[in-house]
Amino acid sequence: MAPPQDTTDHPDYRFTLANERTLLAWLRTGLALVAGGVAVATYAPDLGVRWGSAVVALGLVLTGLGTALAGYRRWRANEMAIAADRPLPASWLMPTVAAAVAAVVVVVVVLVGVEVLGR
Asked: How far apart are CA 70 and CA 64, in angstroms?
């Protein structure tokens, strides 16, 4: 017996569900960055200079917020492309989040270096 033929005009639901899973992954990443910022603010009071942990924590929280918002924006753009049967738009999200996290890591390395050299 042959599988039933799809005669509807809507896109395959598997693409929409995969897009939703991708959105959830970006939201988890954003939440993890925010949690990391809270942890830095709570458990690393100085980081070499008086304002060090506040800068790192704020950087992580803002990066997490940006990741979650940009993930939603990407999900919407992909949904529109899927519905219109167009190619998915190019994304700047991955390199931007990677650069932001790398910048925070550089700041942490500098601050830890100041802490170690200051002893």
From this structure: 10
**To the nearest whole percent, how much of the chain has pLDDT over 90?**
71
d(CA 79, CA 56): 34
Domain range for 21 is 13-117
How many separate domains does the chain show? Answer: 1
Three-state SS annotation for 75-97 = HHHHHHHHHCCCCCCCCCHHHHH
pLDDT higher than threshold 80 for residue 16: yes
Asked whether residue 86 is domain-assigned, the answer is: yes
Helix (H, G, I), strand (E, B), or coil: what is residue 59? helix
